[in-house]
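Task: sequence design from structure.
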């Protein structure tokens, strides 16, 4: 079974860095309490390095030490933390003997351990509150319906009602409601009513808690969810016979099957990605854009008549249109919805260089700052392409499930430029979907690095 991953490497690195900082602070304060001085002795400094190193090792063995999300009970989180400290103490005591650090003050060691445990415990509590805040915010708020009224449906409803304040239950749907269901008054209709209800009430998630023998109905709901930017989950009641080859995760004791992995569904991942977008776009706007603007503005003006910037409506997340900004690379024309081709007469000399080097995309960092785009994501296509390809490519709608990006996985994998053949756009969509299903912070970093590398060497398909 591929477990649904809640936290990725960046989360662990960030929290580990915070822990090491807190450990360093604990050492300083403990030394001040014991000896009245913030300066550590050489032996105590060595002990700090050893202490931090052992904590890093222990946290690597303890998979849940850095779990702050709501999917793990609070008691379990702190139990894992206590277990980690016990293991840490055992290993550290062994190291003290091996490295002959027995001359360290026992009182100093006590201060250090108590303060470290208090600081890291308080840090986890604060992070838990922050996570709870984002869970209650609009960023995490989601409406959901449950298809089915059996035991699995009731259990799911009760669990979400008690433990997930970021969701709002909209109703049950069942053609033959279970008479033993204590919430029959919440049944809104039959399965045929689900689609219309979801569209009219802005539902975000559909949970299918029916027997899994109706493949046609499941496929129909899955396709409807994909085409309308809803999350579709199957919640069968088969806890004792979980298959190893399904993509499953658990909410408390309720097993859930996801049609595909969706890392950016998690609030923590969306917050992390958005925070990086803001920081990165501000850096470019404040330090790089002011240098490029006068140079490129003069070059564009000298090369051809017209404005410096070009703006155009593009479909973004969930097909919402936004104004996309670029440096102008073409002669002023009335064919802006026609894709650029090789040796396109509309492209200026300066424009050809800008396209080849991707510098025409720099103004889009303002789109990132505004929240219309991300640094990395599926590239926003033309409105005309949306109308055409959504009818002929099965999973085309899925690429608009996430915020579009200045650069993307498809582009750094060689699929950019003109799409003369349908299969070329199909490959782009394939890579966009792969990006959505396999997103991680490190994947974004890799795509950014490859984009910069391609800018340096130039791209043959950029015209």
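Answer:
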């Amino acid at each position: 079974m591929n477990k649904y991953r809640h936290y990725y490497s960046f989360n662990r690195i960030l929290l580990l860095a915070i822990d090491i900082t807190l450990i360093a602070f604990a050492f300083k304060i403990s030394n001040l309490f014991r000896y009245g001085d913030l300066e550590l002795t050489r032996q105590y400094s060595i002990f700090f390095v050893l202490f931090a190193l052992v904590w890093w090792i222990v946290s690597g063995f303890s998979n849940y030490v850095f779990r702050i999300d709501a999917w793990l009970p609070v008691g379990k989180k702190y139990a894992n933390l206590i277990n980690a400290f016990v293991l840490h103490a055992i290993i550290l005591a062994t190291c003290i003997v091996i490295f002959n650090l027995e001359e360290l003050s026992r009182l100093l060691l006590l201060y250090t351990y108590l303060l470290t445990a208090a600081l890291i415990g308080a840090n986890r509590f604060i992070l838990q509150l922050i996570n709870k805040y984002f869970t209650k915010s609009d960023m995490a708020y989601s409406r959901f319906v449950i298809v089915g009224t059996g035991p699995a449906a009731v259990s799911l409803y009760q669990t979400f009602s008690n433990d997930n304040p970021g969701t709002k239950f909209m109703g049950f749907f069942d053609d033959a409601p279970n008479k033993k269901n204590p919430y029959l008054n919440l049944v809104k209709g039959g399965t045929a009513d689900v689609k219309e209800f979801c569209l009219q009430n802005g539902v975000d998630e559909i949970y299918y808690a029916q027997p899994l023998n109706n493949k046609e109905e499941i496929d129909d709901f899955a396709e409807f969810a994909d085409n309308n930017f809803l999350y579709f989950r199957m919640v069968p009641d088969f806890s004792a016979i979980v298959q190893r080859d399904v993509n499953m995760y658990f909410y408390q004791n309720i097993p859930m099957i996801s049609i595909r992995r969706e890392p950016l569904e998690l609030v923590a991942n969306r917050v992390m990605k958005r925070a990086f977008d803001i920081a990165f776009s501000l850096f470019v706007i404040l330090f790089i854009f002011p240098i490029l603007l006068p140079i490129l503005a003069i070059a564009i003006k000298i090369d051809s008549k017209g404005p410096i910037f070009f703006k155009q409506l593009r479909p973004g997340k969930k097909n919402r249109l936004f104004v996309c900004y670029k440096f102008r690379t073409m002669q002023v024309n009335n064919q802006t919805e026609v894709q650029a081709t090789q040796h396109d007469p509309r492209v200026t000399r300066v424009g050809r260089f800008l396209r080849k080097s991707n510098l025409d995309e720099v103004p889009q960092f303002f789109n990132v700052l505004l929240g219309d785009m991300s640094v990395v994501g599926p590239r926003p296509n033309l409105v005309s392409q949306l109308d055409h390809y959504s009818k002929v490519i099965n999973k085309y709608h899925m690429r608009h499930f996430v915020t579009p990006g200045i650069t993307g996985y498809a582009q750094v994998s060689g699929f950019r430029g003109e799409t003369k053949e349908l299969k070329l756009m199909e490959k782009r969509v394939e890579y966009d979907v792969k990006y959505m299903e396999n997103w991680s912070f490190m994947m974004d970093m890799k795509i950014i690095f490859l984009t910069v590398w391609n800018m340096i060497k130039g791209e043959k398909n950029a015209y």
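Confidence is low (pLDDT under 50) at residues 1-8.
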